Amino acid sequence: MKKNFYLTTPIYYPSDNLHIGHTYCTVASDCIKRFKELEGYNVFFTTGSDEHGQKIATKASEAGMEPKEYVDKIVANIKKLWEMLDIKYDAFIRSTDPRHEKDVQDIFQKLYDKGDIYKGEYEGYYCTPCESFWTEAQLNENHTCPDCGRPTQLTKEESYFFRLSKYKDRLLDLLQNNDEFTEPAFRKNELIRNFIESDEGLEDLSVSRSSLDWGVRVPFDEKHVIYVWIDALICYLSAIGYGDDKEKFESFWPADVHLVGKEIFRFHALIWPALLMALDLPLPKKIFGHGWILFDNDKMSKSKGNVIYPEPIIKLYGVDALKYFLLREFSFGSDGSFSKEKFMQRLNSDLANDLGNLLSRTVAMAIKYNEGIIEDKGVKDGPDDDLKDLALSVKGKVEEAMEHFRFNVCLEEIWKLIRRSNKYVDETEPWILAKDESKKNRLNTVLYNLSESLRIISILINPFIANTSKEIRRQLGLEEEISWEDAKVWGLIKKAKVNKGEVIFPRLDIKKEILRLDEENAKLMEERAISKKAEEKEEKNAKAFKDEIALDDFNKLDIRLALVESVEDHPNADRLYLLNLKIGNTKRQIVSNIKDKYTKEELTGKKILVLCNLKAHKFRGIESQGMLLACEDEDGKLSIASTLADIKDGAIIS
To answer: Which of 472, 497, 522 is the last residue of a domain?
Structure first.
């Protein structure tokens, strides 16, 4: 009976289209899945999207869309990208899936009933892009986020807390006495030093927000939504049937490995095991925190204009070229720097010169010298055993390196065999053997040995570059189906006929190709910008006319003329104003997202139309008591509604 193996990527935050850095982890996970399946495991591979939180709500608002509508479009692009990359995931879990939201509420209720969640008040510094709270001592200089370096806002609000401190001793014991639980090892040491043994220790965790609407509601308190980390982490349980498929859940849990980026490693290595301890569930076997892919040693960022998207690379050079580079160039646990030059050089040297050349030479010589027939005639000579011994040793080395996800080491071991096979061609000189009829059998043996080496190579590279593996086997006249165990056996080709094929990796003119890639990347960004603008226009046009209402419905609206007495900056949000209004004998305050449209001076003293009986709502901790009325055209030009005549504030619109 096959053993089960469960692995996950992070649940990606779909605030924008994914770039090559996001691709890295998913390609690695897909490689692990393919490898473990070849080893004989029944593998379940989960990826997905974490769709709640302030950042998504803000992005959607800026686009004039509802949050779910906004993320639907991005999730569709993510799935399209995974399909383009031939990613073989088994579940794509969305935090907006109804079954997941039910699991989140059930677990929150269970933790509350147990006493591991309690109500209190939170005061701390909040980073919206990271969805993280920090104490003042944890911040960088100028109160910037220690993870992303961006500004934070001091926030104070009612919150539910998870008793993370209760599990401090168990977490410390887990990290200190289980070397397999976290990798690489240096990340564990950072956790212990910075978050457990620090002066502040391990504080209880804020797990709800009362100033945010976009999220899963606390089941026993409608005022609160469940904060991102409880919501997101539970995706790993929901994806394998936590609340609705007990048999499946018990078959695959605990996870064998969670692959995560280093920026969210501490959440997975501290908060996640503590939650599972509180739920009396088995802990995952391993949390692996991989590094970032930088661009010329700088973090990729749209604002810096250095984002590289995977789609242009795939279009120009194929899926396997990108996968090979990501897995071969970098050590998975550390940061690595992507450059277009390095990508082209690696493609030329490893894929074109080494592997592509070996296949082309072998197939071409078999056709030229032996009518395409591959058959061993048993005439051995000096270098034969050396090639065979090396070929049969690689499988074990790959298995050992894969235990710790050292993909670059695996590929280097395979490429030692590829380079040795090319050297074997030079040593045996088949073109010389072909001139002497008496050496025909030796020629056959040489071509056979090269084909056997390529057969084993086709198995070894399959988890990493599957399409290339299939093409090698097709050109060698072998069946597409492979067995991992066949990589440790020499002589399995009995008699085969090769098939002439295209060069699998043509050599590149690096200077020309860099320009081509830049053009394709710029073209993609331009297309997306145009598409986004068109969608925004379509959205605005679609909202031009709403369903008819009765006069009684209109009479429910209390719209009045208000005088703007003063305007202030929102203390917790860069894009929002606080408008202090006089409406007849009443004073009111509203929060409005018009800071980029009007200056304070332009608004102060103006009379505007305000919907007064809209239910009060908090925006970033400040209550808004109504909503101003405005119109906006398809080009984004906005004008606040007022009256033609200068009449007294408090006048009612009817």
So the answer is: 497
Query: Measuring CA to CA, which residue among 294, 288, 320, 334 is closest to residue 9?
Result: 288
> What is the DSSP code string of 131-174?
TEEE-GGGS-GGGB-TTT--B-EEEEEEEEEE-GGGGHHHHHHH
d(CA 559, CA 546): 19
- Round to whole Å and give the CA distance between 6 and 248: 11
Alpha-helical runs (H) found in 268-406: 272-278, 310-317, 319-329, 340-346, 357-370, 382-402
- The last residue of one of the domains, among 497, 524, 539, is 497
For residues 482 and 569, membership in a common domain is answered with no
Q: Tokens representing 378?
A: 């048993």
Q: Are residues 560 and 478 in the same domain?
A: no
- Does one domain contain both 488 and 593? no
User: Running DSSP on this structure, what letter comes out for residue 438?
Assistant: G
Q: Six-digit token pair at 248? A: 């499946």
Residues 380 and 444 in one domain: yes
**Is the residue at 446 inside a domain?**
yes
Q: Which amino acid is at 35?
A: F
Asked if 577 contacts 595 with a C-beta cutoff of 8 angstroms, the reply is yes
213 burial class (0-12, 13-18, 19+ CB within 10 angstroms)? Answer: middle
DSSP string covering 560-596, please? Answer: EEEEEEEEEE-TT-TT-EEEEEEETTEEEEEEES-TT
Q: Helices 67-84 & 54-62, crossing angle to 10 degrees?
A: 100
- The residues pairing with 582 across neighbouring beta strands, listed in sequence order, are 563, 587
CATH number of the domain at 389, please. Answer: 1.10.730.10
Helix or strand (DSSP H, E) at 489: none
The C-alpha atoms of residue 452 and residue 446 are separated, in whole angstroms, by 10
| Single-letter amino acid, residue 621 | G
Q: 460-500, pLDDT tens digit by residue?
A: 999 999 999 999 999 999 999 999 999 999 999 999 999 99
Give the neighbor-by-neighbor strand order of the sheet with 217-218.
208-209, 221-226, 217-218
User: Would you say 517 and 316 are in contact if contact means Cβ atoms under 8 Å apart?
Assistant: yes
Q: Which of 172, 191, 192 is nearest to 289 (CA)?
A: 191
CATH code at position 569? 2.40.50.140
Say whether both 347 and 434 belong to one domain. Answer: yes
Residues 249 and 586: their CA atoms lie apart, in Å, by: 58
Tell the burial category of 64 from Cβ atoms under 10 Å away from its Cβ (0-12, 13-18, 19+): middle
Question: Which residue segment(s) compose the domain that 601 sits in?
Answer: 551-640
Domain count, the chain: 2
Whether pTM > 0.85 for this model: the answer is: no
Residue at 531 is within a domain? no
* DSSP 8-state class, residue 509: -
Q: Do the domain assignments include residue 614?
A: yes
- The predicted-structure confidence for 34-83, as pLDDT tens digits, reads as follows 999 999 999 999 999 999 988 888 888 877 788 899 899 889 999 999 99
Same domain, 480 and 572: no
Residue 597 is assigned to a structural domain of this protein: yes
Helix (H) or strand (E) holding 19, with range, is none
